[in-house]
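[worker-b] picked up task from shared queue
[worker-b] task type: protein-ligand structure
[worker-b] ligand name resolved to fe (ii) ion; SMILES cross-checked against name lookup, match
[worker-b] sequence length check passed
[worker-b] input payload:
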Amino acid sequence: MEKSKISRRDFLKNAGAVAVGTAAGTGLLGLPGCATGPAAAAAPTAAAPIARGLQFEPETLGLTPGPSTAEINFTWYAKGGAGGASQVRLFDEGGTLLQTVQGSSGGASEGKFTHKASLGGLEPDTRYRYSVSNDGTNWSYEYMFKTPKTGRFSFACVGDPQLTQRLTNLQGAQDADSKFFSADRSTAQGWKDSMAMIAAAGVDFVAGVGDQVDKTSGGDEVEYRHFFAPAELRAIPFAPAVGNHDRHYPFLYHYNLPNEQKFEPIVNATNNNDVETGTAEAAGHYFYRYNNALFVVLNTSAYPDSAAAARPYIDRFDRTLSAAVNAHQGTYDWLFVQHHKSTASVAQHVADRDIQYYVEAGFERLMDKHRVDFVLAGHDHVYARSFGMNDGRPVNTGKDRISNPGGAIYLTATTASGLKYYNIFDAREYM
Ligand SMILES: [Fe+2]
Ligand SMILES: [Fe+2]
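[worker-b] inference finished, payload out:
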């Protein structure tokens, strides 16, 4: 494992994030929690966008991984663009137009429109410029992203930035227990600081584990503007998970997810779900392959009130994992799951009944069944890493370097903006 430019402690405490390095086909994996990075490889930078042809400015423009590293997805907001004439232009690093793709648009919050587009045919280890348009006539700044090399890559895992709106009544303020305050002690700036550190670490993409924003019902576009404010998100793809705070329609508007699996909303009094909540709980099940690793994102945002009520959600997870594994059988060395509500953590959420019901209904058995290597989660606003686990028990207690652990390692990421830190509640035997 390569040595990090920044210390593990600083990276985790300040960024609330972890970066994982994979080694193609060697069977050896850098442990999560160790900030690794392709030190020699230049990061996809958030270099100043190029103003050529600027005629409109998209809002909350972000990238998500495509189904593979040869593809990439775009999403932005704009006041106009009802006609579905969204387009993205792709240029080489020197500015030569390579392709123009057609996207789609739809109504979104604040009377605005969400625009989505996907493009493929990307070469590895290549810098590209891109520009977006609502109508094919008026174009945005040109931004830049870089595709990963074949083989080894690195990514950051971030939990619970949970951006809030303002710096009054403690809303939007960082936790008083923060060790690294942002300049104005706001979560908005803390998140910008985290993304700057993540970009400096040279990661290829960011895997989110939920609670990107805070306001649940209806959402809050100011929070989304805070979330997409870091310029790095125009250059580094971000793969979100749905957290309990993301259960609203704006989640559907702000991300263009690869291989998203469609499920019917569960709307009933047992789960205290209205249509918006049930719809958001049914979204965000998707997968993407990144070189020799397969990432499957599951939505554990719901609050089942019994093991029986949790089973339909477990069924969604099984179907999503099965679709991903069947589509990529024999092509990946590592299987990662991203989801929100950590089942193996140490702070106060670990004893929550809804999480216990997920476990009783078979969440961790499902990880064993599909031979998942790493389960990345958040929700508990604390950093924790389990031993290699199988059937709910530790099977490998290696602490520093593990080869073939014989079971899934469960990683919990703390808050990536410094919003709030939960106290250590119970140091379980599997940590
Ligand atoms: Fe949270
Ligand atoms: Fe949460």
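[worker-b] attaching auto-annotations
[worker-b] Residues 211, 243-245, 340, 379 surround fe (ii) ion (ligand 2) (CB under 6 Å).
[worker-b] releasing lock
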